[in-house]
Amino acid sequence: MIEVVGLKKVFDNKFEALKAVDFTIEKGDLVCLLGPSGCGKSTILNLIAGLLHPTGGDIRFNGSSVVKTEPKDRNIGFVFQNYALYPHMTVLENVMFPLTVGEKKIKKAEAKQIAETYMRLTNIEELSQKKPGTLSGGQQQRVAITRALVQNPEVLLLDEPLSNLDARLRLKIREEIRRLVKEVGITTIFVTHDQEEALSISDKIILMNEGVIQQNDDPQNLYLEPNNQFVAKFIGNPIINMLPVTIKEGQMTHPVFTIPLDRFTDIRFKKLVPDGQYTLGIRPEDVLTTTQDALFTTQIKSVELIGRERILNFDLADKHVKSIVTIEEIIEEGAEVAFDFQYKKAFIFDDKGERVY
Ligand code: ATP
Questions:
Q1: Is 292 in the pocket of ligand 1 (CB under 6 A)?
Q2: With contact defined as beta carbons under 8 Å apart, do 231 and 206 qualify?
Q3: What is the domain extent for residue 285?
Q4: Count of other CB atoms within 10 angstroms of residue 37
Q5: Sheet strands side by side (includes 64-65)
Q6: Count of domains forming the chain
Q7: Is the pTM of this model over 0.85?
Q8: Cβ atoms within 10 A of the Cβ of 281, count?
């Protein structure tokens, strides 16, 4: 188990990269640190690995603080995006290397046996005698992960391990990583800025922005129950529609439509909503075409066909809105279309971006 308690990092130039971050990772879980560039993901990883020293707070492995422990004694496997393999060594020698150096080094024959066991697990046995320079990006990354695993680390840290790979290979290797992590049962932290990647492989996602955790949750909860506007916008593709609205005397009004508040279900209101300015968040799949009781009718500006879905683009007041319909719904550019919302799936955010519904 990894516990991060009130972890802070202020760099020498006074930049506050982490502002008192708290989280716990259970043994054997695969957790993604997700967020936009510069939010502090790599800083957290480097602090856990001991490559950076915290300004405040604590990091505990199985209940014991490690902040004063040397990086080499933290029992961590670290994989970077640029593989960092030794070019003059074969794949086998690269994988064996960590076992044959340092205080805990073991005999070559024993190291070879352990290396080969892990190489079977990651399907790189046939590459054993090759040099890294002759391998594809995906193969090099497999070698790097195998090399990190041979020492049987307590924690595996992966910093954007797939970002140098092409789209198809990314899909394949991310599935392999998930399978491997679960097979070995190792606690793993995976850094990415790709929400789809995070949603597809994680047990839990820690979504960060500007050095602050925005939500630490199961993948589906980030999508279905976002804490705030940042989370709602970061997760989901195409991006959620955000419409400025006014709530007054039981009605939600927008320049184009009015919704009685009782169309939203009481149980989803997180607190009493006083009259005022809010933002209605509605995902494209919850903007539905309708043949009766339309909330509004509008002209479609453009249509994109993406796989099995059609994305309808239109403007509401001065905001661009997207609706997703199935490929069977044949709607063309310029058509007048009637819409309604799926109110139970909508979100309402207050002026600070916090979710109230
Ligand atoms: P990316 O996805 O781009 O790698 P990240 O979320 O991993 O981003 P970090 O590398 O953790 O972000 O950096 C967090 C912030 O701290 C950034 O704004 C970065 O510019 C800043 N930062 C990182 N290292 C230093 C340093 N040594 N001195 C000053 N600022 C730094």
A1: no
A2: no
A3: 241-349
A4: 7
A5: 16-25, 2-10, 56-61, 64-65
A6: 2
A7: yes
A8: 22
Nearest ligand 1 atom to the CA of 40 is 11
List, for residues 276-317, the tens digit of each pLDDT value.
999 999 999 999 999 988 999 999 999 999 999 999 999 999
255 and 146 inside one domain: no
Dump pLDDT digits (tens) for 221-261.
Answer: 999 999 999 999 999 999 999 999 999 999 999 999 999 99
Please identify, by atom number, the ligand 1 atom nearest to the C-alpha of residue 18.
14
Residues 253 and 117 in one domain: no
Q: What CATH number is given to the structural domain containing 68?
A: 3.40.50.300
Residue of 42, 80, 159, 192 to test ligand 1 pocket, by largest number of atoms within 8 Å of CB:
42
Residues 226 and 262 placed together within one structural domain of the fold: no
- Return the residue whose CA atom lies nearest to atom 12 of ligand 1: 38
Q: b vs e for 40-74, b when ≥16 Cβ sit within 10 Å of the residue's Cβ?
A: bbbbbbbbbbbebebeebebebeeeebeeeeeeeb
Considering only CA atoms, which residue is closest to atom 19 of ligand 1? 38
- Ligand 1 in contact with 211 (CB < 6 A)? no
Query: Ligand 1, atom 17: nearest CA belongs to which residue?
Result: 38
pLDDT tens sequence across 169-222 = 889 889 989 999 999 999 999 999 999 999 999 999 999 999 999 999 999 999
CATH code of the domain containing 274: 2.40.50.140
Tell me which of 211, 234, 257 is where a domain ends. 234
Domain boundary among 212, 234, 256: 234
